[in-house]
Amino acid sequence: MDFLIVILAVVAVIIALKFIKSAIKLIITLFIIFLVIRYLDQNGYIDLNSMLNQIGLVWNMILSA
Asked: Which keywords does this chain's UniProt record carry (predicted)?
């Protein structure tokens, strides 16, 4: 279920990129998607730590960078 949410978010980004031509709109869109994914992670709807650990990334390192 967690992977489905992340895959749908990636698909939404790809679809959005096909319609967005401005770099500023792209940055705003990615920032909003990041905030939504972080909100879902903080409220327990998805568990990003386990998914990112499986691909070798550490969520805390990403947030502290």
From this structure: Membrane, Transmembrane, Transmembrane helix
Gap between the Cα atoms of 27 and 48, Å rounded? 22
Q: What is the CA radius of gyration of the chain?
A: 13
Give which of 43, 42, 55, 65 is closest to 3, Cα–Cα. Answer: 55
CA distance 26 to 44: 27
User: For residue range 26-60, what is the model confidence (pLDDT) as tens digits?
Assistant: 788 889 998 998 888 888 888 877 777 777 766 66
Record the pTM. 0.50
C-alpha torsion 41→44→46→51, nearest 10: 70
